[in-house]
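user: Here is a favour to ask of a fellow structure person. I have my own habits and do not want them to colour yours. Could you put it straight underneath, so I can go through it closely?

assistant:
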Amino acid sequence: EIRVFKGPTWNGRPSRMLISFVTMEANTLLIPHYMDADLILFLLKGEAKAGWIHEDDLVERQLKPGDVLQVPAGSTFYFVNTRKDQKLQFIAAVERAETDLIGGWFSAFFIDGGKFPPSVSAGFGISTLTSAFNATPEEVGVLKSASFAGSIIFNTDNEANHLHEVISDMKSEMKRLKQSRPLIQNSDKKTVSWTTILGSIFFGETAKETNKAKRRASDPVEAPNAYNVYDREPDFKNDYGWSIEINGDDYLPLKQSDISITLLSLSTGSMMAPHMNPRATEYGVVIAGAGTVEVVYPNGTQAMKAKVREGDVFWVPRFYPFCQVAAREI
């Protein structure tokens, strides 16, 4: 299940940041896709294996509760709930990349798909696909005939077996492409052509034969690990609560996204004194407990006083004073 919270418009402009809640049942997979948005993920419950393309390599990381991971816009990724007896839950901050499109929503582009969700390649004409993949019209028909039961599927039966083959082929193709006709990519424009990758996934050796290894592989790319917020001491702690903040100095991908993450814990009945953020809008997600959030307008009147509980999302505009109060009883 995927739920997305879209913030309200501000001064006539849609919010660029969205908050997504993702719940995956035990032994399920989120199939490979990319988005026109940067993702900052916080793993709330369960254990996961995440895979994504990082500088022409497909890398995988094991994630545990408290891990923070960034997936850049345009990077193909997938998630696997590795537990057979527990749901996986994570929260994602979704920030749309700058595009010419109007609106505050984002789009997901599925690399492997069929009728639902469709593969992005299925929108091209048959002649275009046969030329791009060096395949027959019958072979490219698989792009339209494959069928998944949604973007999250169970890790069983034929669908999951096919996805395992896709992931395996993506790994081998990424390694081999570093030796042969590589992804068309440079450090300035970051333009990526993935027809060869899809060719090997869908059409096997027919497409692979067009790219024999001719050049030495470059040195392995060191992809960033996840950063676990629970593995460090609080930045501030007293009898009433504690807080931890991580930013680009702690985890470099956050600097690239210009985002910081704060984990705040308040004791029963305690309050975070009124304060404001002079640099950015703040988005809050209640992951446990209940309480009250108060926000004040510049003219000194109350903008909001709302009771919040686990699962609620709130946002505070830049410069606006606000405070949080933990409930005395839930």
About this structure: The CA atoms of residues 201 and 309 lie 45 Å apart. The longest strand covers residues 37-45.
